[in-house]
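In this supplementary section we document a worked example of the pipeline. Step one takes a protein sequence of length 385 as its only input; no multiple sequence alignment statistics are reported here. Step two produces a three-dimensional model, which step three serialises into structure tokens for compact storage. The input and output of this example are shown verbatim.
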Amino acid sequence: MTFFRAHAGLYSIMEEATRTNIVKDYAADLEAYYGARQASYTIVLAPLLMGNFGPRVPHADGTYEIYGILGAGRPADGVPTFGSVGSLRALVWHEFGHSFSNPQVDRLRDAIAKSQKLYPPIEAKMRPQAYPDWHTAVIEHVDRAVTTRLAYRELGADGGDQALLLEQRQGFAYVPALVERLKEYEEHRDRYPDFATFAPRLMAVFDELAAAKLPPEFYDISLSMSVNDVLSSNKRRAIIVPTVETDPAAQAAIQQYARAIQKRFAADGEFLTDEQALARDLSEFSIMAYGTLTGNKWLAFYKDRIPALSVLEASKEAHPLRLIAAFPNPQNPKLGAVVFTATDAAAVRDINSVFAGPTAWVLARGTTVLSTGDYVQRDGRWVVR
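The serialised model returned by step three reads:
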């Protein structure tokens, strides 16, 4: 406690900054949705913790004292931070939500075990996230399905779509089916007054999926990739540079810059001109393509495959504009590509200084991000959300 008192000022700053970003009673959202109340809710800020946890302690009346233990994100001015308004909302829903949903999953353990065959197809993504068995994976799927439905209800279709896509990206392949079944719960609260009464119906989703003999395509969401998904891939990278830019000096600068990127981040990759790339089979590569859409022949050939180009074309912002965007590798949609382009060839050099990664695309001027977003599938095609 001597140490704690010595750092009380720092803890007070952390607490106040976090309290400011909790703009709504998220526990009330959960109580209304689950049709149940708990004894208490406490958020614990843990500046040395990696990750988050949602433990609970039984209360004398059968409810729980719920805790959301939150690990720190990036520091700001030397002070640990614990999330924005949006990320804290999702975290609190998720961590507090476990204390509502987990007991219902646990009481149906034997029934859930019958769909064990659904675990191997997602195991490679579950284990690194510390979900080493089917029951634990089901717990996470159910909690995440509810938080996704809360996002739809509280944030609208775009917020819900983004939450759902995030869960799919992290490997929770069965969340969409659970989300769809939860609509039945919401529409028939007269029949299902609380989550406990609906839980058997919700868990039946896993039996139905197990009986459906899902094809490999069911688990493939590679088209909804983010820039980070492509750049963090363990596949070899191919870096493609332009040869027909109208500004020779800018073209030389792009080539020199891309070569430096390749040496630093993809030393074992391929460095190709646009003409060489068009003549190669790049189906086993993650691709990084630099240049304008007219100066890089490879980009010109495949530009219709890049959904985010519509953002660049529709923007009325002052030029030059920069676009960093992920899209499926045209020769293998299970792998990805990232375009690093601009409306002026001179603006392509140093484009990696723009913050990009968590989303599918970023539009910027200089290093200032103007807008960013993801894709959504409509009529079988991926378009900007």
